[in-house]
Amino acid sequence: MPIRPATPADIAALLALERASLTAGHWSGLQYQAIFEPTAPPRIALLEEEESTLLGFLIARPLGAEWELENLVVAAAARRRGLGTRLLDELFGVLRSQAGAALFLEVRESNRAARALYEKSRFIEVNRRKLYYRDPLEDAVMYRLIL
Ligand SMILES: CC(C)(COP(=O)(O)OP(=O)(O)OC[C@H]1O[C@@H](n2cnc3c(N)ncnc32)[C@H](O)[C@@H]1OP(=O)(O)O)[C@@H](O)C(=O)NCCC(=O)NCCS
Question: Residue 85 C-alpha to ligand 1 middle, in angstroms?
Fold first, then answer.
């Protein structure tokens, strides 16, 4: 299954996939549209699909010399098949080709699946933000990967 950059034609599918996942980051349709505006700050949005069905995607943005992974979602029915790992590996390759120095992210402390994926992908826990998330109130764990 090839990984490709997302386009404006994918917005409805991106929204549907993240809405179906409680622990994913949740954006509005307007926020997804803004990624593709000609004057928008550079972002990387990659997705993987099977027979035109979206199975997973990620979004990252540059912050100074580093990059932030803003969202990563794999469809519930397609989890534990390596898609999350493949999407991350593709992102690492793209960032290295752009001389990206590091990639960081924040995740809910209770999100065991995501944390296990990030740790397996060699991210290192670097910090915590106490009671950062609401509904439910919870710490954010910050991870960083040197590219
Ligand atoms: C987190 C998520 C993206 C993982 O995607 P995935 O495609 O299932 O991940 P992979 O198949 O590449 O898993 C790689 C490794 O991560 C770990 N892992 C993934 N899901 C796990 C789970 N539910 N429990 C424990 N470990 C898990 C395992 O070590 C796994 O390797 P293994 O299958 O050989 O044991 C997916 O569960 C998801 O979309 N969750 C909801 C959205 C979300 O929370 N996103 C993160 C926001 S910060």
Answer: 8
The verdict on whether 118 is a catalytic residue reads yes
- Which pLDDT tens digit goes with each residue over 7-25? 999 999 999 999 999 889 8
* Domain extent for 54: 3-146
Report residue 55's pLDDT band, with 50, 70 and 90 as the boundaries. Answer: very high
CATH number of the domain that residue 124 is part of = 3.40.630.30
Number of domains in the chain: 1
In one letter, which amino acid is 74? V
Angle at 91 between CA 54 and CA 102, to 5 degrees: 145
Please work out whether the CB of residue 93 comes within 6 Å of at least one atom of ligand 1.
Answer: no
Point out the catalytic residue in the list 18, 32, 48, 106. 106
